[in-house]
Structures are given as structure tokens and as C-alpha cells.
Amino acid sequence: MSAPAFAASSEPLTIIGGGLVGSLLALYLARRGHQVAIYERRPDPRYQEAAEGRSINLALSDRGWRALEGIGVQDDVRRVALPLYKRAMHSIDGQLTYQAYGRENQAIYSVSRDGLNRTLLDLAEAHPNITLHFNQRCLEVDLHQRQLTMRDTTTQQTHVLTYHRLFGTDGAFSAVRGAMQKTERFNYSQSYLEYGYKELQIVAGTAGKWQLDKEALHIWPRGQYMMIALPNLDGSFNCTLFFPYEGETSFAALQTPAQVQAFFERVFPDAVPLMPNLLPEFAQHPTSSLVTVRCYPWSYQGEVVLIGDASHAIVPFYGQGMNAGFEDCTVLDQLLTEFAGDWDTVFAEFQRRRKPDADAMADLAVYNFQEMRDRVADPRFLLQKKIESKISAQYPDQWLPLYSQVTFSHTPYAEALANGTRQEQIMQRLMPLIHTEADYDTPAVQALVQQEMAQLA
Amino acid sequence: MSAPAFAASSEPLTIIGGGLVGSLLALYLARRGHQVAIYERRPDPRYQEAAEGRSINLALSDRGWRALEGIGVQDDVRRVALPLYKRAMHSIDGQLTYQAYGRENQAIYSVSRDGLNRTLLDLAEAHPNITLHFNQRCLEVDLHQRQLTMRDTTTQQTHVLTYHRLFGTDGAFSAVRGAMQKTERFNYSQSYLEYGYKELQIVAGTAGKWQLDKEALHIWPRGQYMMIALPNLDGSFNCTLFFPYEGETSFAALQTPAQVQAFFERVFPDAVPLMPNLLPEFAQHPTSSLVTVRCYPWSYQGEVVLIGDASHAIVPFYGQGMNAGFEDCTVLDQLLTEFAGDWDTVFAEFQRRRKPDADAMADLAVYNFQEMRDRVADPRFLLQKKIESKISAQYPDQWLPLYSQVTFSHTPYAEALANGTRQEQIMQRLMPLIHTEADYDTPAVQALVQQEMAQLA
Prior knowledge:
Two copies of one chain form a homodimer. Chain A contains 14 helices and 19 strands. Chain A is of the alpha/beta class. The first copy, chain A, folds into three domains: about 15-80 and about 110-190 and about 290-370, 3-Layer(bba) Sandwich (FAD/NAD(P)-binding domain), CATH 3.50.50; about 195-290; about 380-455, no CATH class. The model of chain A has no long low-confidence stretch (mean pLDDT about 95). Chains A and B meet through strand 13 of A and strand 13 of B. Strand 13 of chain A pairs antiparallel with strand 13 (about 185-200) of chain B.
């Protein structure tokens, strides 16, 4: 069965999921002349308080910015974004160590998930081609009949909709993917870390003053677990504790307020005085799980496609979940230009090009948890990063550190991972010769660097 | 919520799935005094013709035999099983090459899936503690209320059952696992090969005579694909073509009877004269997919457990799917003795002990496809296997080939895989010195073998 004929630009499109990726995608598609209907399970967030304990902030970086630039909204977002130029590591005795994210002036940006979603929804609502439908839970997707069974969660009425072209931007637990999972030979995996996370607050100081450096992402690396903090506009920080579910040091082991208090005082002593609501927050905020979702194919007969977390949910440790979903929009938009009107080819090319990158990013995100919770506390690791910066400064066209490729470039993730793996092998050969930053300039090291770079070229 | 109290041996148990593993498990549990109810989606196979194109035979080996011995049914089964002592490789020009499976008299046994299932169901039906319920489709499992919504597929009536303890033996597309997949932090993957399979027949000769050696598993290895054949009691062989779905040489490329005929004559010339029904069978028999399913945990709160394909469906290339499911029954039975009455511990230990073995077997099964379709056609590979046999004969206590560990021993699969990996590394060092079987006895080779064995010990 094929969709009824429409002029390529007027075909009506249906999006399930009005989160960050769904609302951005709607703007891209509407700009091409399509009528776009967005159905979102939750109430309109613009008329809601942020859900309890879920005032998440996200790290927006170059891939995300490019996607926002594509619809001209980058300046609005930049006004409410806080640049973070470095990591600030807090040792157990209160010492601070810093690691720059990139070259001077390169930063990731702390933005409120909720604020960004509101901005994108305002733009979508103002667009004449887009209609927004909230409180609409997708109960069933009939891929053969191209029908959606929806329930209005305010009236509990169920109704059936027909779609022509369907975009599943409904996140890690996607209903659209749920229907595709039952089709022939659909590869699927959901894989949980044995860690959960809990969100906590560092409050603002007097007169809305930030009590920690607001230009850093703060990390309390503790080997098998960590806490991080990102600044908010109001002077507070959102903290997240990433912590084992079970075991000697775990959520399961912290049962009483006294145990929580004693644990935090022991391992995060410099943070505790800034967290006056620690105990009620710890008790009341949910413990959330950390899942990686992979699947393939991402599309069904040129009629349905999964975008963002629906096809490639990743753990948050590289700050790339939203950026990857936004980059999906950029790539899809390029393909819509390249193969205008030929949805079969657009969807087929989209999944073919994008799947290796999504897989690479999923691996990088899991890898970075170990780096953040453990390796950043190791002086040798920090020295290696400094040496890498020096190589990159000396050979700017040949060596961009992996973190910069992922965060400050548009190099496909899979290519970045492959480059990063080669770079790490070189560093493993170089570092035995290096004991201080100054060693980089010794003739022996310089000779080896030159030799390695010649082979890399 | 915990189950109402019963004497450990009288607690009623519910099994979803009355296939090979479900019926065997019922016999093990009933022997302990439990009342066991089996619910099976399909009609009673004892009153049905075998489903069209699905007259599967299976390779029963030592792990399977041990499980059958546990309930005293091994002699009944052995009477209808055909021993296969070797692989017989058919080259494209009709040459036959052989590879023994193990030591003399070691064999895998070709048995009819349907016949074995009938035997086990007869035994289950005769047991006073077991009730059988066919045509019962499990629509929903409510893990909190411990309720099953079942539909009788003959009357279309739906009814709700309460269970005390539930065993999911309902195969690769398990409904019980489907419910567990929605619980917190359930890890799950379904992964398909890009190959499908189709079942075909080599007919019996005059007077029910086998037209190929009936003591061999026949393989037509063709690099990227293969056909295999296992003997039946009536003189016929069941053939299975394992073949890519897409591509130049694929199911997609064989569209017309003339294409099928030409292809088979070109690549399986010695088999075609024995397959008079090739064209109608090829057209009418389904093309089936090949899936590996992994998940964890396998149990839910000491109340529900997944057994066999429901928790670890594997591809068929090592002939271990049924054997692994039967070994699950052996292991579970041992744990029921060890921790009598303590279901929480039994289920927890079962999944903890058995998961690494299921994962190893899944990997081995995928690996063996490449061996069967490709490597067995390589004289160097066959020479390596002969040399391995010689090492094993010389050092019987130290070296059992991987295939024998998997097939003719009860060594846990994970341990077998680890041993096999070490052995392969040794063979990689040895084989460059060896060009003929006789080379094994040269002083240089013997010295290296001795040295390797000393390190292995």
C-alpha cells in the first residue's frame, strides 16, 4: 500500500512526541511547506510546573547549535544558556583541579531542558503549518492500515487517526518503535547500567550568586560513582548523583536520612554545606535508570521513521543525547533536499548513514562514564590530556582530540570514534616518555611525535 | 506480595508452553510432588499432522540425553533416534569429505522434534500430577496480581487464571518474557541474522532406503551459504537451506521456478536428483528467520522464571538449542534439591549460574555457522581438526576439542568456550609447522606440543 499522492511539499506529516526533537523536527518539516501535526503524551509544558525532581539541564554543543541555526533560533537559546569552558574536579579533601574542554572560548552550554522545549513549542505553535495536540497517548500503531489509536488523557476518549507519513520522536520508550519491534527481523536491544541517578540541588547564594564557578561543569569523581553539577540561570546548580543500585556503596545501602547525611559528609564534604535540602530531596526525588537502546531498521516501508532517542537512546555521560537527536534533524533535512519527494530513499539513506554514528555515540557515552567518575581524578590522565592539547596545537590540521571531535565538530560520530582510538594508541606509546608537561618539548619526545604524526598522515 | 503457604512439594505450579522444554520440565516438577498445569498455545500435536514444511529434526547430544535420563525416558527416545558419527561435506563436483564428530562411537542423534514432543506429552498426560491444556493462548501476564489472561482458541473465550509459581517455557517469542520486558531495568535483545532458512526434502529410495550415508550429517558448504541434511527413520532426509535474504545470491534473487532449478543444479548438483519435490517445496515452504534472544534477569521476585528459548533462544548451527533447554531442567532440578522449598534462592541461583553459559552458547552457535558454511570446505581446517584429535588422543586428560566439550560433555558452556579459545590460540602457533598429518610426529612439532601442554596444565 502506498500513500495517496500529494505534491511533495504539501503531504501532511504526523509526529508522535513533542519533546525537544519532535518540536525541532516539526519546524524543519513545516519550513518545507508540509502540514505537520504533533501528538504529545504529556500536558503542554508551557502551562505546567516542572515535574518534581526533574528540572534537568542539558549540555548543548556544536551539533545541537547547528540544528538550531537551521531554523534561526540560536540567538534566542544562547541568551538563556550558560557557557561551561572546563571540567572542575572536586577531590575528597576539597581540592579543585580543572580540565579545559577545548581551545580558548570553546564551551558547552548548560540549558534548561524545559526552557528549550518551551521555546521550540512557542515557535511551532506560531507556525501556520504546525498543529500541536497535547495529552494524546499513542496506544497502538497499525503499520499496515497506517492508523494510530490515541487516547486523550484528559477525557479518556479513544480515537483512531490515519497517517500518511509518521515520525516517531517519542523517546527511549517509543510507542512507534514498539509497533516496529513486532515486524519481521527487527533487531532490538535495551541495556541498563547497574547504576541509577538522582537529581539534587546546590542552592543559590545571597542575591542569586552562584556558590561554585559557574563556567565549569563540576565533577566529584569517586571511582565507582560520581556527582556532577551544572549551573542554572538563577544561581543554583542541578546536581546529579550517579550511583550503583546495589552493593556496599549504593542506593540500596542508603536507607535512612542519617546514612545519607553521613555518606555525603564523608565523600562530598565541600558540597554538603551548599545542599540544605539534601535529605528531603534524596528521599522524595525518584531514582532513575540509565538505558541504552539500539535497533534496526529505523524505518518501515518509507512510511514510518524513528528519530532521536526512539531509535538510539544513550546514557548521558557525553552530553550528546539531545545533540545527536538534533543532528538527526539536520541530516534528515539535508536528505530531503538531496532526494526531494522520494521518501523511500530519504528514509533508507537516513538509517544507512546514521546508524553507525548512533552506535559509535552509544559506545562513547558508556565509555565516558568511566572517564568522568574515575580517570579525571588521576593526575596521569590529566597530564595526558594536556599533552594531547599540545599535540593538537602543534598539528592543528592533523589532531583534534576525541572530545573536541564529538563536541566541537560535525565529524560523524563513527569517524570520531575511529580517529580517537588511533590517537589513544599513539598516546599509549608516548606517555611512558613523559613525566611533566615540559617533557613534551624534549628532543626524544618531539622525535617520536613527529614520527607518529608522519604515520598518521 | 508472596504466594500463599503450601508444603514445598504440594505447591501448584503453572507452565506456559508445552513444547519440548515445557513438557520435560513438567515431568521433573511433578516427580517432586507438585501439581503442574501446562498451558499450550497450539493444538495437541498428537492429534495433528505435522505443520506444513516444519517437519524439523533435531540433534540430541549428551546434555539432552542426561536430562532425559533424569526422568527415565532415554531408552524410548533412543529407539527412534539415528546416530550421526560424522559430518559429510559435499563439494560442488560431488566429492565427499568426512569429519568425525568425536572419538569412535561418539555420535549426535537425529530425532524428530514432533516425535519427541509426543513422547514427552504422553508421559506428562500419564502422570497423575500433570494436567495438559491445549489451544490456550496467553494474552497477558499480570506480574503484580499473578494473573494470566488466556484465550481458548477453539471457543475464543477469554478467562483469567491465578498462578502461584509460573514457568515460561514459551519459546523465542515468549509471552511471559514480554511481560517481564516491561519491568524495571530488564535487559533485552533480539538479534536476527541476515539469513533465512527453508526446509526441503531428500526422498527415500526404493523400499525406504536412505540415498545418502545415514550415519552422517550432510553439509553442502558454499562459503556464504549452505544446505544441510539429517536422516529420518523412513529413509528420507530433512534438508535445510541457510541462505541470505537479500543480495546477488539470495532468496530475493530466486523468484521463478526456473531460477530455483538452475541455481540448485549449479551449486548442489548431487542433491538435485534426490529432491523430486524441490520446486513445489521451495515455493510453498516458508522462509524462516534466525534470531538470537538474550535477556536478564530471567526471574521475577521468586515467582516467575524463564526456561529454554524464552530466555536464551539461539541459532541452530551447533545443534544445542534443545540440549541447552533440557540442561536448564537438569540444573533447575539440582537447585530444587539443594535449596528445597526456597524458590527465591532457586530462581536467583539458576539465573546467576546459567546466564554466562547461555551467553557463551549463543556466541558459539553464531560462530559455528561460519565453520559449517565455509571452513569445513577448507583442507587446512580439516587438517587442523585431525591434528587436534591427535593431541586429544595423546593428552586425553588435558585436551578435549571444543566441539566435544559442547556436545559430548557436561562442562558448562562458558568454560567450554574459554577452553576452546585457549586451544585455538595453541593451534594457531602449531599449524604453521604442519603440512600433513604425519608432520604431527616430527620432533619439532612434538617439542612444541609438549611445551604448549606444559603451559596449559
